[in-house]
Specification:
This protein has nine helices and 19 strands. It is α/β, with parallel strands linked by helices. The strands form five sheets. The chain has an eight-stranded mixed beta sheet with strand order 7-8-9-10-11-12-13-14. It has a three-stranded antiparallel beta sheet with strand order 1-6-5, with no helix packed on it. Helix 4 (137-149) links the parallel strand 9 (125-128) and strand 10. Helix 8 (228-242) packs parallel to helix 9 (267-280). The longest helix has 15 residues, at 228-242.
Length: 337
């Protein structure tokens, strides 16, 4: 066990975790909803500081981040556990294991070793991903400090359900984040994720205020979050509250975890969402999990010419002069150095 951060003491040796928006009150000997934070005699500990369950060298496009150091490699790590319980989770063996089987596995790797591995493999960044990085905050924080010192960028792939305190702690170290905006209805978050919508919306605005590079992903699930009205509202929020430069990744659902009764999202629904995003004023909209679809390419919002061609996670021709379109000179939003 490793001492946890962001918690306060309560009566009778109880503690309240202030790491995520569940704000778990944890009695002595008990665990938070994430399954990886335990109250031991009135003090909170993390159980995954030294248990890295996944570590890989990934293209940054896999996060997905299309406007942050495109074409670079990111050393990607994750532990077991998650602060949500999405019935459609596509990585449930990692995220839900501590809750469903009380099993926490992983390899003992120090923050120093993680940074050394990233440098050794020629990565430009470290990504905290695979499960929910909020729940392995202490490992992420210590690693991100060392990564900065080594000249690496820090990237989060998150459900966005952390607290403002958590974001503030990371403010000086995080560089980019992709947030899953799972739906635009509170009932969806309550029913299918055991969470709430409003903290995610607040955090998206806070992330913008902190100046991190932000991209947003939405998994479109047939009959649950795919109505035209909901997608219109979501696209309008992104464009009006976060800004038209925020890339929106629209991802295709495939049966997973406890949601095996629904088929894949129709491509026509995906294309409807794409068009709604463009109509709302978003400059950069992408479709994911639709192999071969031409929506993976970044188009200049001014002249419409392709500036970054992609096929899956592989870059093709790049027509950029710094952060400007190589055809007309218009600025393309992102971090391209």
């Amino acid at each position: 066990m490793h001492p946890a951060k962001l918690w306060v003491s309560r009566k009778n040796q109880a503690v309240q975790c202030r790491l995520c928006s569940q704000y778990c009150r944890i009695e002595a000997g008990e665990y938070g909803l994430c399954g990886v934070r335990q109250n031991n005699k009135g003090a909170l500990y993390t159980l995954v500081y030294d248990k890295v369950a996944a570590a890989n060298v990934d293209p940054i496009e896999k996060k997905p981040l299309f406007h942050f150091q495109p074409g670079s490699w990111s050393f990607s790590i994750g532990t077991m556990g998650c602060n949500l319980a999405c019935s459609f989770c596509q990585n449930d063996s990692l995220s839900q294991g501590p809750k469903t089987s009380n099993r926490i596995s992983g390899q003992s790797i120090t923050p120093e070793q993680l940074v050394q591995s990233a440098v050794k493999h020629g990565c430009h960044s470290i990504s905290y991903t695979y499960s929910e990085p909020t729940i392995f905050f202490e490992l992420m924080y210590d690693t991100s400090v060392l990564a900065k010192e080594a000249g690496l960028k820090n990237v989060l792939v998150s459900n966005g359900f952390m607290t403002r305190d958590c974001l503030q702690e990371l403010a000086a170290y995080a560089d980019a984040i992709n947030v899953d905006l799972k739906a635009f209805r509170s009932e969806f978050y309550t029913t299918y994720c055991q969470a709430k919508l409003q903290p995610v919306l607040r955090n998206l605005k806070t992330i913008q205020e902190l100046g991190w590079w932000l991209e947003v992903t939405t998994l479109i699930i047939p009959d649950l979050n795919d109505s035209k009205s909901e997608l219109q509202e979501m696209a309008s929020f992104l464009a009006n509250d976060l800004g038209s430069d925020v890339p929106w990744h629209i991802s295709r659902f495939h049966p997973a975890f406890r949601m095996q009764d629904k088929g894949p999202t129709p491509v026509s629904t995906m294309e409807m969402a794409y068009n709604l995003g463009k109509e709302a004023g978003l400059k950069y909209v992408y479709l994911g999990n639709v192999p071969g679809h031409n929506s993976e390419t970044t188009l200049c919002p001014a002249c419409g010419q392709p500036v970054i061609k992609r096929r899956a996670f592989t870059l093709g021709q790049v027509d950029l002069d710094g952060n400007r379109c190589g055809h007309c000179g218009a600025q393309i939003a992102g971090v391209f150095s």
